[in-house]
Amino acid sequence: xxxxxxxxxxPEEQIGLLETILTRHTRRFWRESVPGRPEKYxxxxxxxxxxxxxxxxxxxxxxxxxxxxxxxxxxxxVPPVIESAETELRPPGQLRPPTAxxxxxxxxxxxxxxxxxxxxxxxxxxxxxxxxxxxxxxIAGLGMRSxxxxxxxxxxxxxxxxxxxxxxxxxxxxxxRRMGRAAGAALxxxxxxxxxxGMLVGWSVEIDPALPELRNRTIVQPADIAxxxxxxxxxxxxxxxxxSLTLVGVMVxxxxxxxxxxxxxxxxxGNTALGLDALFLFAxxxxxxxxxxIATFLVQGLPPRDWRMTSGILAVWVLLLLLLxxxxxxxxxxxxxxx
Length: 339
Hints:
Strands 2-3-1-4 form a four-stranded antiparallel β-sheet. With 339 residues, the chain is an alpha+beta fold. The chain is elongated, with a radius of gyration of 23 Å. It has helices spanning 15-25, 47-61, 100-106, 112-120, 127-146, 149-158, 162-174, 177-204, 212-215, 222-239, 245-268, 272-299, 307-334; strands at 3-10, 28-32, 39-46, 68-74. It folds into two domains: 3-102, Alpha-Beta Plaits; 112-334, no CATH class. A hairpin with a 6-residue loop joins strand 2 and strand 3 (39-46). It is built from 13 helices and four strands.
């Protein structure tokens, strides 16, 4: 069972309300008094309840100047906190108990605040981000040129576009414009650097345009859409459970980095048509990852700030997917981009 240790600091006059709140969301909590400082409460919270506890604390004490809350991950709790349908803490107020499906998908999801903290640093366009994108694309390009799948996987493990991709889906889900702009800027910048890195590879070494590893990045088929949707859903599921970023990176990078690198290689080799085909694959993959990512975040119970905004953004992504799928179908019927 995943659990969190939440430490809360409040002035003494607020402890009555705080203990009422803690009773609703936690099973164990204790108080520590420090002379001359705010009162400190520590509590053990099942991971699935961290979100609603932090929301309740923010609603009640967000305006209190000395209020602070820290969330720490626990490796083990003795005696264990048993989590089952019979022992679960009921939602506060008039909220209905979660269904079996909701309980299954939200069981191990980390809180929105923890998701924000995991993503925030990766949305900053800094030299290390640009260099990582450059190296990832170069490695992917050289791996595709030599037909070495293991090398391409190495580029995926670097996963430079992980943060912006997850950030875009998270921002769309919760309706955070600021995060959305940061994720969009990082994603566009990273994509441009990846294409330029691919062009560098194309200018530096001799490239055979018919190489299977390269050519496959210019052909869009229904299976590619299924792959990208699976990558987006699996990436969000892993990311929202605090899984290894390397694991999530492989899931997402498999759909984004290689097409960008291939596009740069083909453009540098003077084959603009195949370069555009690779960019078309990248566009479909990006849209699919966001559609699947937003849907998966919602299924996991991530709370949107404005359902109208979130629904509108998801509708736009779905419409883009339908448009690109129609173009793909037309290309297949006309034999464009096929062997």
